[in-house]
Design brief:
18 strands; Diaminopimelate Epimerase, Chain A, domain 1; single chain; alpha+beta
């Protein structure tokens, strides 16, 4: 037999403390030796919503690249959470302190990451500082409501349908009730057609009505053009939604920080929670942080 190369690979459920909840991601360590073609092949082979490839960086502590089965994206929250849990597990990050600071290079820029150790549970919460939000294009709600099987009565008017980016652009769409969120029946062809020539990568729909009393918003995220029809829990979408909630008065900001809990994943049987911190007010959001925990489900060897 011809010898083959091997890499460590992990399957991690992010934004949850429970195996088989939250959002699964594949994590490949030591990926510097892989070319772009191999990255794409591995992402298709793993067939998780995102595979994150961990590499060395000459600008930060690590460089992460994120691939879906169809394409590469600049940044994604849940595989970032997953990758740091794998790095901690392998002893590649020293976490002796209560809070460990790490810098991360991505195609979206250099991000600051805080690893917070919970002494009572032994778990690590990964907190990512996102880029300052940018509020981009707005869209006519009628076609999007139709594509989701909803009507104007389900829409939280007059708030806009708008693309918001803290590193990854998400189209944010407010609904008036949880019942409307539950009734969504996407027309995938229409959603794909709407995304052409757009400025976003997902359609993220939310309501203030939640299942858990401690949550502030409930979300569903759709990205059929990326090969991800419904994303169980999206950290980058939660960051954008947290900014939208402040900007359009859904939540009254507090100083020095507004803490927001976003719940997601109930509609695909993988519930999870994202913790968002927004610094600033509706006129000037200064900083956004997104955090969550994760569970390693298995570790293996990738042969190629």
């Amino acid at each position: 037999m011809v010898p083959r190369s091997e890499l460590d690979i992990f399957h991690v459920d992010a934004f949850t403390d429970t195996p088989f909840g939250g959002n699964p991601a594949s994590v490949v360590l030591g990926a510097d030796r892989l070319d772009d073609e191999m990255l794409s092949k591995i992402a298709r082979e793993m067939n998780t919503r995102e595979t994150v490839f961990v590499m060395e960086s000459d600008k930060a502590n690590f460089y992460f690249r994120y691939l879906t089965p169809k394409s590469e994206i600049d940044f994604s929250g849940h595989p970032t959470i997953a990758a740091f849990h794998a790095l901690i597990r392998e002893g590649l990050i020293e976490t002796a302190k209560d809070v460990t600071m790490v810098s991360l290079e991505t195609r979206a820029g250099i991000l600051d990451v805080e690893i917070v150790k919970n002494e009572s549970t032994g778990r690590h919460e990964i907190q990512i500082t996102h880029r300052k939000p940018v509020f981009l294009r707005t869209y006519d709600p009628k076609e999007y409501l139709k594509a989701l099987g909803l009507t104007l009565a389900d829409y939280h008017s007059p708030s806009p349908i708008q693309t918001v980016s803290t590193g990854t652009p998400h189209l944010i769409m407010p609904l008036s009730t949880m019942r409307a969120l539950d009734r969504i029946k996407p027309d995938w062809d229409k959603l794909k057609a709407l995304q052409k020539d757009s400025d976003y990568v997902t359609v993220s729909v939310f309501t203030r009505e939640t299942r858990a009393p401690t949550s502030d918003a409930q979300v569903r995220t759709f990205a059929p053009a990326l090969g991800v029809y419904e994303d169980p829990v999206s950290g980058s979408a939660a960051g954008s939604i947290g900014c939208y909630l402040i900007r359009y008065g859904f939540i009254e900001p507090t100083r020095p920080v507004t803490s927001i809990v976003v719940e997601q994943g109930y509609h695909v049987g993988r519930p999870g929670r994202v913790f968002v911190e927004v610094h600033g007010d509706k006129e000037d959001i200064e900083q956004v942080k997104v955090s969550g925990t994760g569970v390693i489900v298995f570790k293996g060897k990738l042969s190629y």
